[in-house]
Specification:
The complex is a heterodimer. Chain A is built from nine helices and 16 strands. Chain A is an alpha+beta fold. The longest helix of chain B is centred in the middle third of the chain and has 21 residues. Chain B starts with 7 loop residues before the first strand and ends in a 22-residue tail after the last helix. Chain B contains 22 helices and 22 strands. In chain B, about 45% of the residues are buried. In chain B, a hairpin with an 8-residue loop joins strand 13 and strand 14. In chain B, the strands form five sheets. In chain B, strands 12-11-17-10-18-19-9-20-21-22 form a ten-stranded mixed β-sheet, with helices on both faces. In chain B, strands 1-2-5-4-3-6 form a six-stranded antiparallel β-barrel. Classes of the chains: A alpha+beta, B alpha/beta. The interface between A and B is medium-sized, with 17 and 17 residues.
Chain lengths: ~325, ~650
């Protein structure tokens, strides 16, 4: 693959129907995407509780120490570049990295970093054809318009797929290398495990709550009432989607005025029997990671600081807004 | 660009909010990088097909921060508890702002690009400071952290002339900035300046405080290792000055003693201090130093000119038919003026159109000179000038004025500076370069002050001295209070520890805040220097002087205090060997306590005169010059108060 043309407008100049977008807006703003890390519930599902005992809050004995040594995160940055017959095209940069904490310093990637910049264009458009012909890095977007999927949602999902792929690849490499120590992943691990049920020292921390894993009001009430340092019983998440994982809710912080999701995370472990031995330990380690605070990130109540460090590192590698505008070339 | 590779310690950054310019750039560096205000760095970059660029810079500001948006975040994160350690350290960064010292290639003068930053090596320091542009550099200090000092060389043509010249040093007194640095500079110049003998170099210094400069020919007894190492690096022997001559004013008209703390039998044997006194011409030439602004009105100035042009050095007659009076000394001049006054008061109230009040005022002032500057001004004897007829190579001449009154200091300073200026004009210095060291410059050349003869001389030296071989090394505590013409003509400047109040003066606003703050806290032996080849000020340190310090010298050679009474006894014995000491003691015991010292001095002068006249009237002289108050009427003329003359 060839790297991106310095000026996309030059490449697509003679493509009929293409209109470049000069506004230096993030695609999320321009296309009205909903931020991924929101807490707006979209669905309620019912999950099987796999931990014995009543469904009630469990107090975590906090040791103040953490066995997490590795931290993984992925990022994406998207710039609306053009429209072709009202179908948007974007320049996107996705990346993933794992940083290792040595002592109290987090400085080393140990080579676990992968990032790419590409154009996302709709299948069948002339822009996609031109990019493919010239051998440029691009991602083809398919949209099921008949089923009501919007073009902007489709392109957002396509870019997320690229990001997930990067994350999956880098974690797979980490696993292959047989590194000692525990890895804390930002987001769920179920799609990384792809249905495999063997034990790995990988923990996922999910900050978004678009899906609630219980429907019964009593259970929801238990989760909502969790106090800082308390967790829910463990349940099996997504068992039918080859994305199964042992999971539980954990309250990091509390605020009377910030709503029920403030400080609430969902933790995932591989769906292996051995994982059950680590539920309280992992919870304790995560609670120990509450300091330092991740401000000024708006998700500071749920964001583990080392994950913020990985995100900062990845953002430092991303092309700047000016660079992206230059790539669009308007 | 064949510099041996080094470890990169930082990286240049330029952002939209703080972009780099052609003269300033920013970089971040490792936390462990040995960098601070004044550190030199080398930057290398090259993009595309253009030539590789090397930038030399000096750090002028330093910043440190982490990813906290505000203090409240830290407070919240620590839940209000300051102690304790989080599992992950926040990233901490050191960002520096540097000023460009030099770029290679020198053109185009473009903005500093993004590149790698290296700690400056010895070769870098030399290149950054244009050491490759001149030969025979003079070490003026050392750059770098303690224990890793690198010599800093300056172009001799820009310190000693003719290209530029002079050195001005500012620093708080007592913090080893001024005198010590000047001593180091002189050692360095004497060692590294290339001319010899009549092409050589010498220095004239004024000792204005205690025993500061009175032991330059004696070795410092306990040189520290760091200083010895620095001297070794630049091939300066750890030894005192080899050739030093000291001068001090005579204590009395009788040339009986010297007004100096350098009085010890060992010193008198090894390198005695030479006495000096000024004659009438010198006094009149520098009268503006001794007279106040109120004294020197137009009428007084005119009368003084009359004395200089018509009276002094001539066979003067008060009237055409009167006996001629030789006027070669202050005493004779006073006598002449006294006659003029008598003549004026006898007649129309004036003499040669000079009003009797004016004449009386000058009579009183001249008489006052004789009494106030006894010893320094020869009222009846020949002038014995300080300084030799020709200066010798690598020789230091110290004029000690520390024990003199402020007026006497001014007179000595003005007379010596005028003399040097005259010799400079005549090309008669005897050496190619003569360095004159002037401390307390703000006293002799204050900003906004009256233009005195001293100030004119100093301005002239500062403006033209570098062509003519007279170099001014000046020092003061407050640069802001010095005549701007003089400091403006000093191509080289050094700044030691400076008080914060002084740093608020606009003179210092050209320096970044961090540089000013560093100046306010500079340790002894630390200086910031400016030199024509350095495009930015440079922080250096210098070794302690190799000479015996004043306080140590005074401890080692305590002052041999001979009282005035002892001196009177000695002179009395030399006049009349048979006089009994008890008689003299009884006579001296009768001298009133009030103003006793000046009475004793008058006795000493009277005895000296008696001795010159080969008289033997010891008792009479003592009684006349210093006896009881009622006997004083028989003494020298006493100024007459004139109710119409407000200045009498």
């Amino acid at each position: 693959m060839t790297s991106l043309p310095f000026r996309l407008s030059e490449l697509l100049r003679d493509v009929r129907g293409v209109r470049m977008v000069a506004k230096p807006f993030d695609a999320a703003q321009e296309l009205g995407w909903i931020p991924r890390e929101d807490t707006a519930l979209e669905e309620f599902v019912d999950s099987d509780v796999v931990e014995a005992g009543p469904f009630e809050a469990r107090e975590i004995a906090q040791s103040g120490v953490s066995s997490f040594e590795w931290f993984e995160d992925g990022t994406e940055k998207t710039r609306l570049a053009f429209f072709e017959d009202f179908y948007p095209g974007c320049i996107a940069c996705v990346g993933a990295a794992i940083l290792k904490r040595e002592g109290r310093e987090m400085l080393h990637t140990h080579g676990y970093v992968d990032q790419k910049t590409f154009v996302a264009a709709f299948e069948g458009t002339q822009a996609a054809t031109r990019l493919r012909e010239r051998g440029y890095e691009f991602a083809q977007v398919r949209a099921d318009l008949a089923s009501g999927e919007s073009p902007s949602k489709a392109i957002q999902n396509r870019i997320s797929v690229e990001r997930d792929a990067k994350e999956r690849r880098i974690i797979a490499k980490w696993l292959e290398d047989g590194n000692p120590g525990w890895l804390l992943v930002d987001g769920g691990i179920a799609n990384i495990l792809e249905g495999k049920s063997e034990f790995h020292r990988i923990v996922g921390v999910v900050k978004s709550h678009r899906k609630m894993y219980f429907q019964e009001r009593e259970k929801l009430e238990v989760i909502q009432s969790l106090r800082p340092g308390q967790r829910s019983p463990v349940f099996l998440a997504n068992p039918l989607q080859r994305r199964a994982a042992y999971s539980w809710y954990l309250r990091l912080r509390h605020s009377d005025t910030q709503g029920p999701f403030f400080g609430l995370i969902r933790v995932e472990l591989p769906p292996a029997e051995e994982s059950m031995r680590y539920i309280d330990d992992v919870s304790s380690w995560i609670l120990a990671e509450r300091a330092p605070l991740s401000l000024p990130d708006v998700r500071f109540d749920r964001m583990i600081y080392p994950i913020r460090r990985v995100e900062m590192y990845l953002r430092s590698l991303q092309p700047s807004d000016a660079q992206l505008t230059g790539m669009v070339g308007t | 660009m064949s510099e041996p590779s080094q470890q990169v310690i930082g990286h240049v950054v330029g952002t939209e909010q703080s972009p780099n310019t052609a003269y300033k750039f920013h970089f971040w560096a490792e936390l462990s990088a040995p960098l601070g205000i004044g550190s030199l760095v080398r930057v290398e970059y090259g993009r595309g097909e253009g030539p590789a660029v090397r930038i030399y810079g000096v750090v002028v500001e330093a910043y440190a921060y982490n990813d906290l948006p505000n203090a409240l975040t830290d407070y919240l994160g620590r839940e209000g508890t300051p102690g304790g350690e989080a599992l992950t350290l926040r990233p901490e960064i050191r960002v520096y702002e540097a000023a460009v010292l030099r770029r290679i290639p020198e053109e185009p003068v473009a903005a500093v690009g993004i590149g790698e930053v290296y700690e400056a090596t010895a070769a870098d320091v030399r290149t950054a400071l244009c050491g490759d542009k001149f030969e025979g550099g003079i070490p003026i200090g050392f750059y770098g952290m303690k224990g890793k000092e690198l010599p800093v060389y300056a172009d001799p043509d820009y310190i000693l002339g003719p290209e530029a010249g002079h050195f001005n040093i500012t620093g708080t007194s007592g913090l080893a900035a001024k005198t010590s640095y000047i001593q180091f500079l002189l050692s360095s110049i004497f060692q590294h300046y290339e001319g010899r003998e009549d092409q050589g170099i010498a220095a004239v210094m004024f000792n204005v405080k205690g025993g500061d400069l009175l032991y330059l020919d004696h070795a410092w007894e306990s040189p520290d290792d760091a200083s010895a190492r620095m001297y070794g690096q630049v091939d300066i022997p750890v030894a005192p000055f080899q050739s030093v001559t000291y001068y001090a004013p005579y204590q009395s008209e009788a040339h009986s003693g010297l007004v100096t703390l350098r009085r010890h039998p060992d010193l008198d044997t090894s390198n005695p201090t030479h006495g000096f006194c000024f004659g009438l011409n010198t006094v009149l030439q520098n009268a503006d130093v001794l007279l106040s602004r109120e004294d020197l009105d137009a009428k007084a100035d005119s009368f003084l000119a009359f004395l200089q042009n018509e009276v002094v050095g001539r066979d003067w007659r008060v009237e055409e038919d009167s006996a001629p009076l030789k006027v070669d000394s202050l005493f004779q001049l006073i006598e002449a003026v006294k006659q003029m006054l008598a003549k004026a008061e006898e007649g129309r109230g004036d003499y040669h159109s000079h009003h009797s009040a004016t004449i009386r005022k000058m009579y009183n002032r001249l008489e006052g000179f004789r009494q106030r500057f006894s010893g320094l001004i020869a009222s009846q004897t020949e002038e014995v000038p300080p300084l030799p007829a020709r200066f010798e190579d690598r020789h230091v001449y110290v004029v000690d004025v520390a024990q003199c009154s402020a007026d006497a200091q001014d007179l000595i300073f003005a007379a010596v500076i005028s003399e040097l200026r005259n010799r400079m004009e005549e090309g008669n210095l005897g050496v190619r370069r003569l360095i004159v060291v002037v401390d307390e410059l703000n006293k002799y050349a204050p900003s906004g002050g009256r233009e005195t003869h001293v100030m004119r001389s100093l301005r002239d030296i500062a403006a033209r001295g570098r062509y003519l071989g007279l170099v001014l090394f000046s020092a003061q505590q407050f640069r802001s209070r010095v005549d701007p013409q003089i400091v403006g003509n000093c191509a080289n400047s050094a700044f030691g520890n400076i008080q914060l109040e002084e740093l608020t003066h606009p003179t210092y606003t050209v320096y970044p805040p961090a540089v000013r703050e560093k100046l306010a806290t500079a340790d002894p032996g630390e200086l910031m220097v400016r030199h024509p080849h350095f495009s930015q000020p440079l922080f250096i340190r210098f070794p302690l002087p190799t000479c015996l310090r004043g306080t140590d010298g005074m401890r080692k050679f305590p002052v041999n205090r001979q009282s005035l009474e002892d001196e009177i006894m000695r002179v009395a014995k030399s006049i009349d060997p048979h006089i009994a000491p008890a008689v003299v003691r009884d006579l001296l015991a009768a001298v009133p306590v009030e103003d006793r010292e000046s009475r004793l001095r008058r006795i000493l002068e009277g005895l000296a005169e008696e001795k010159r006249n080969e008289g033997r009237q010891v008792k009479e002289v003592i009684q006349r010059c210093g006896g009881r108050a009622q006997e004083m009427k028989a003494g020298p003329p006493v100024p007459v108060a004139d109710p119409e003359d407000p200045f009498s």
